[in-house]
């Protein structure tokens, strides 16, 4: 078997989707954090959970961005990390749908499943094994 010198196309698509997710997480994280901090400033003690969610969203954005950068460096931990985050994303999206969340959660679920399928591609697995 020859060693691949160029990143497989499915992995290039994953990188694009990871950047999209990172930017979306930054936007949502900043918005939720700002709203929660404003509510806390006005005495709403129930804003602690949204604040935590906003901060977690920002942390996830940083992890996704780092993973997007490290894909081309064949860092084996990237595939595992991304697959774990996307699995959590699918699970939280399904829970959100079941508990009455917006149908737009389907977009996030579809992106996460697409990334998981792409990272399970034999060509992608070989890229990280090289």
> How many extended strands?
0
**Sequence of secondary-structure elements:** HHHHH
Number of DSSP helical runs: 5
Low-confidence stretches: none
The portion of residues forming beta strands comes to under 5%
Can you tell me the overall shape?
elongated
SSE order and pairing:
Layout: H1 9-41, H2 48-70, H3 76-98, H4 105-119, H5 122-129
Helix pairs in contact: 1-2, 1-4, 2-3, 3-4
Provide a brief overview of the structure.
The protein contains five helices and no strands.
Model description:
The protein has five helices and no strands. With 130 residues, it is mainly alpha-helical.
What tags apply to this protein structure?
mainly alpha
């Amino acid at each position: 078997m020859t060693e691949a010198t160029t990143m497989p196309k499915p992995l290039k698509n994953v990188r694009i989707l990871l950047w999209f997710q990172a930017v979306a997480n930054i936007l949502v994280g900043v918005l939720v954090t700002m709203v929660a901090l404003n509510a806390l400033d006005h005495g709403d003690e129930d804003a602690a959970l949204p604040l935590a969610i906003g901060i977690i969203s920002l942390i996830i954005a940083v992890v996704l961005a780092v993973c997007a950068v490290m894909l081309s460096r064949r860092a084996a931990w990237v595939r595992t990390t991304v697959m774990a985050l996307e699995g959590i994303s699918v699970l939280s999206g399904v829970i959100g749908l079941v508990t009455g969340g917006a149908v737009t959660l389907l977009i996030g679920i579809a992106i996460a499943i697409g990334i998981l399928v792409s990272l399970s591609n034999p060509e992608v697995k070989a890229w990280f094994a090289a």
